[in-house]
Amino acid sequence: MRLSALYMPTLKEAPADAEVISHKLLVRAGMIRKLTSGIYTYLPLGRRSLDKIAQIVREEMNAAGGQEIFMPMVQPGDLWKETGRWDVYGPELLRVKDRHGRDYCLGPTHEEVVTDLVRGEVRSYRQLPLNLYQIQTKFRDEIRPRFGLMRGREFVMKDAYSFDKDAHGADASYAAMYDAYTRAFKRLGLRFRAVQADSGAIGGSYSHEFMVLATTGEDTIVTCTQCEYAANLEKAEVCYANEPLDRGECPELVEVETPGMHTVAEVAKFLELPESKILKTLLYEADGKPVAVLLRGDRELNEIKLKNLAGVTNLELAGPEQVKKWTGAAVGFAGPVGLEVERIYADEEIMRDTDWAAGANKDDMHVLHVDIPRDVKLTASADLRTVTMDDPCPACGGGIEMPRGIEVGHVFKLGTKYSEAMNATFLDEAGKEQLMIMGCYGIGVSRILAAAIEQNNDEFGIVFPPSIAPYEVALLTLGAKDDAVVAKSEELYELLTDKGVDVLLDDRGERPGVKFKDADLVGFPIQVVVGGKALARGVVEAKDRRTGEKAELPVDAFEEAFDAFRRHVLEGWTI
Amino acid sequence: MRLSALYMPTLKEAPADAEVISHKLLVRAGMIRKLTSGIYTYLPLGRRSLDKIAQIVREEMNAAGGQEIFMPMVQPGDLWKETGRWDVYGPELLRVKDRHGRDYCLGPTHEEVVTDLVRGEVRSYRQLPLNLYQIQTKFRDEIRPRFGLMRGREFVMKDAYSFDKDAHGADASYAAMYDAYTRAFKRLGLRFRAVQADSGAIGGSYSHEFMVLATTGEDTIVTCTQCEYAANLEKAEVCYANEPLDRGECPELVEVETPGMHTVAEVAKFLELPESKILKTLLYEADGKPVAVLLRGDRELNEIKLKNLAGVTNLELAGPEQVKKWTGAAVGFAGPVGLEVERIYADEEIMRDTDWAAGANKDDMHVLHVDIPRDVKLTASADLRTVTMDDPCPACGGGIEMPRGIEVGHVFKLGTKYSEAMNATFLDEAGKEQLMIMGCYGIGVSRILAAAIEQNNDEFGIVFPPSIAPYEVALLTLGAKDDAVVAKSEELYELLTDKGVDVLLDDRGERPGVKFKDADLVGFPIQVVVGGKALARGVVEAKDRRTGEKAELPVDAFEEAFDAFRRHVLEGWTI
Fold first, then answer.
1. How high is the pLDDT of residue A203?
2. What tens digit of pLDDT does each residue of B311-361 get?
3. Interface check B63 vs A, CB under 8 A
4. Contact B33 A120 (CB under 8 A)
5. Helices (H), B459-511
6. Residue B145: its chain A contacts at CB < 8 A?
7. Which of A208, A160, A155 is nearest to A446 (CA)?
């Protein structure tokens, strides 16, 4: 491709609403343009990268036995009513009535559609397993779309769905997708981790998220410094050394005045105790019913763990009025002693110590010397808090790290959630009707484009992994009026194109500074620069965009020199 | 690909709602499945053909200087309000409000979006011309979706938009697209005609439609038996030999009773006149105002011609009450003599004759001996009727034919309709602000899949053009338990795959009859059959799906024999 014929409107300034680097650079590099909130047009360069990402994903899906189909974007509401998601999904599901007043929605995901497709046709175990996938535009009406392609409303996803006849087959399907994802992300040139993820209220199932590592990531990952353990923060367990407990003696309960001391920090300071000796009592409305949770004052509750323990879908922190009603006191003075709520849960950690300070359920009062087994009507104790850097790896006891990541893939065991709701059955070997066992597997194709940039950029612009750069090589003609330079550029352009190298020739009549800046900004992995002076010395220059490394390639042995340089660049990208 | 691992659910019966052959065969061949009215899922084979069509279109668009982008499906209503189409477009535009109550629509076309994109960035004549296209899912809320992929609600289109600095450039852009379409449809293996089309109320512009020829086509085309003239029925002009007129004498007007004679046929029979001597008087509401049209009793009015002549957008045949109000008589007795409506138009043909019988604007009365110049207050005469087989070619005077076609492409000069409404300007060479001149160019990618089948099928199923068949070769293993047959099949499968031939191996444990039926039904262009008896004779059989021609390919010189057979098959498909 010639840049003179390419629509690549690069910009000096990022748009005012761009908060993250990938959004800024995608717009500045002329790859995307905003149409409206959370909805973007892909310009030629953006579309090329998107296509390359999609193609790598497609190849790995096909290699793993996936079959590509293409399902509609507009879905009938009836199917969503059948699974109950029409009512549960919330306003992110964009609903629309057609001209005849029938309910439809724009698909944010396709479990209903694919299950409907298969239940009509697959009747025998002989037709299983089946893995159907598509690469398609999705819509999710985010309340606050932001971060460019990171959290848009319209986006491109690969979504796959597996159907198996038994648990063993479902495990194999899941493993095949896990492996395909691993291969795909490696080929995409991204540093990533597959982490255990919480699978919500769907019983018996589990899931992994694939996270692109980036300091700007929205998600926190927990990884071990010694073993392979990796989980997202919601999922990561806290484990305790298996030592005999000696909680020690606890004096009698004593109430003390703590006037106006609402927060853990205030109470700790006032009582001259460390925060770790204050018992934090949180009150929640869990599916409409009161639940109290106890944990150390310096710890954070992991709400997902609480949801799973309590078996509830909706969890909301109780407001001041509810706290008053349930405890008789203002916010800040709730405590477990004498608390009359149906369920009181304790984080496992506090079961290993005694002599706590806690709210007294009276305004401006706390109580000292609380011993949980002695003083509290506990429902259950479990791991309920968020892991910290000081905790050991739950797998091996080693140290942990907590890097940031961007979720770009998710593999998920669905079990029979959808096949049961939609009656997707088959006849097994014995002629008996059975529910299909399903899995679903998503990759955020457009999100990968953003995540790749969040991971790979510098002060000059994007640093694209070669496999997804819009072009692998930028060939810069310095001096559009210098006949020798132009002739050599054209010759090398032809040579590289004939070799099958994905090359963009910057043949514009622009100054060298503009060409260098644009090439750096878009982040083509290799720059080949044809300039008058160097050419007079019989060389052209090559640059590795990632490392900044430069080399002089002799024009009379260009091809071998280029191949060697390219190999070197690509090796640097091996994941 | 192995058929044992392919999701290809063929059916013996077509669905009850399938009216046309392409719909029946696409479903029976396991290529598509209906999700809901006018909305289909593409199964693996359907998606492959769809992809092949898209890829050919893409390559020809790129070769013609088009740049592929990817615009959103969900479009802000504000842009449509800017061009006025929000109010004009009607219920086919599926409108939706997002969670914040803002207006959006599902894009049936992208003029607004692409003009919005370009007006923000293209500022100089140096950035023109520009041709941006995409291949994307569109939505049009048809009132009565039918004919499967022929008239669906959700469909795949290639839509391109050109921007030029002047009329000369716009002509060149149009010509480039016309040529690209011609190349694309040839490569698609379709017999087609590019025909002149009406371009509606957009002044000064013109357009061509690309029609796939098929006896089942919805559209009628007018072509010349001698010259290159081709137009759609709406556009085709009627011309008359340039001879001096001798309309002859006309007696005085005489009113006659024609009790209960409402139709032209009834009146002609009653008056013992040929239908061609009855003057048909049609009354229309044209943008709300009455318009009368006169034409020969045996002719059909072409409403498009009337719209263009009258310069109106909406045309509705007047109802009985309006007819009564305007003429004083019931339907069937309207006539031009003494008719008091603002505009009376005559079809050119009736200006060449005299002595007409016409309605008398009184119930059960007609008037004889009407001479138009003498008796009628005419507004204008023009070519207003639909062409017939008896008319001469308007270009050369030769004979005409009227084959049926399916519209699969449309090239259209937009002029400044959108650039003016949306203020898409640039600075010309003199630094003066000018409106961009636009064109738009559509290809119905999913519709081509249906049209190709309407054109190419027989009693056994689809007869796919090789370039868009889901697989070019079906390799049938007859006898999954015969080791020699299986071994030879596998060997040939590997050989063909390695050669880059797009081959599907039917390795299922099915009976030969099932395999033959399925291969014929899906319509793979070449069948290669490995059977025990033939193999014992040292041959495999090959069949040309289109002609039914068979050949024996010796296994010890398979490759050359196959190549020759394939060349022969492909030659038969040359357009």
1. 44
2. 888 899 999 999 999 999 999 999 999 999 999 999 999 999 999 999 999
3. no
4. yes
5. 483-498
6. none
7. A155
